[in-house]
Write a structure and sequence with these properties.
Elements: H1 3-23, E1 24-25, H2 28-31, E2 40-42, E3 63-65, E4 86-88, E5 109-111, E6 132-134, E7 156-158, E8 179-181, E9 202-204, E10 225-227, E11 248-250, H3 261-264, E12 270-272
Parallel strand pairs: 1-2, 2-3, 3-4, 4-5, 5-6, 6-7, 7-8, 8-9, 9-10, 10-11, 11-12
Amino acid sequence: MTKKLLLILFILQNFINLYCQQHKFTDLGEAVKFPENVYELNLDKKNLTKIPLELKKFKNLKVLRLVENNITSIPNWIGELKNLKYLNLGENKISALPNEIGNLENLIGLDLTSNNLTTLPDSFVNLKNLDWLCLYKNNNFSHFPSNFGKMTQLTQLKLTRSTIKELPKSFQNLTNLELLDLGYNPNLKFPLIITKLVNLEFLSLYGNEIESIPNEIVNLKKLRELNLSNNRIHTINERIGELQKLYELKLFGNDIKTVPKSLEDNKDLSIKL
């Protein structure tokens, strides 16, 4: 690589860094001075009790972080942030989302970790570009809206530690899901409907008080990691051996004495008992 090319790359990298710095803000007071330039805003740990009204001015905002505040509700005008791609509202006290959340048509990622949600609004399915959704540790989350299966573009969904008892029938339409985490949902156990999700690669059902593994597990031909730890399983269904792409199987925290030969023969499979 010539010195001239190295110099060009150096200048280009510095330009990119400068561009990013000019569009990233961590101070609301500074951001409001340049509303058109605000592409990314990080207001984590600011002791906020509500989302500042000033954010309405940031029409070009793409990334918004409001983690670890004391926010209890989301304003209706959140739907005006049309260019938003990533929204992190984790570790707040939010109990409901407004219908206007469905207006964020460019949203790709939404993190709602550790809030007080019980469900999602019907308008949620209008988020046609949403790729990943994290609902981890919404302990009172009891059900998905019946139309949730319309979110066929989802590839990652995490719903750990909730009170949910069943998944809607439409859930079987989420066939682009590659990662599904439903751990510590003891009322849910092993919902058979998830065996319709043929593109799943990572499945977690740890801590669900599961007693047996259904035969339908073989439908998940692309499964690479399966976490069934901390359940009540005594025997491993031999048909798991038919999952040829499986390379990690977590079964610790169960009362399993033996492993089927079909699994022992898979030299690429790591079994954690």
